[in-house]
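Possible regression after last week's pipeline update?

I re-ran a chain I had predicted before the update to compare outputs. Posting the input and the new output here so someone can diff against the archived version. Not blocking, just want to make sure nothing changed silently.
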Amino acid sequence: MTERFVVATDGSSPSDAAVDLALSLASKHGAEVLFIHAIDDPAIFAATANMPFDPTPTLRALESSGDKLLNAAAERANLEHIHAETRLMHGDPVDAILSGAREWNADLIVIGTHGRRGLPHFFLGSTAERVLQRSFLPVLVTKQPAKQ
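New output (post-update):
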């Protein structure tokens, strides 16, 4: 039975580190990879609800950007002869990652973290932390590489 890894990707440095780690592990273990990118529609709609602003162009731009990220990750996997699929999802990123993993029958979730502490963590939260708290699967978290 082939192992299946879900990798959350958002284009950040920690996310890139998660892609690197997942591809390295997938290559060694013959695993398949599902790359997930989530667009937090509810947050966008809530932020613009009382504004004379149509969020549709912003959402389309985010979808285009997400597709590019997913395609780049899948292309990297293909170059390493790793079967990869992509999924652009809408909604809370934690819910998207967990539901994508469940639907795809994943064995492992790989996610990056900025490793923020203090006020930045308080205000920005941590998707990786919430995935760890709610996951029904093992979660491998990689921290953003140290700046050179």
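Follow-up from reviewer: compared with the archived run. The beta strands are 4-8, 32-39, 84-90, 108-113, 139-143. Marking as no regression found.
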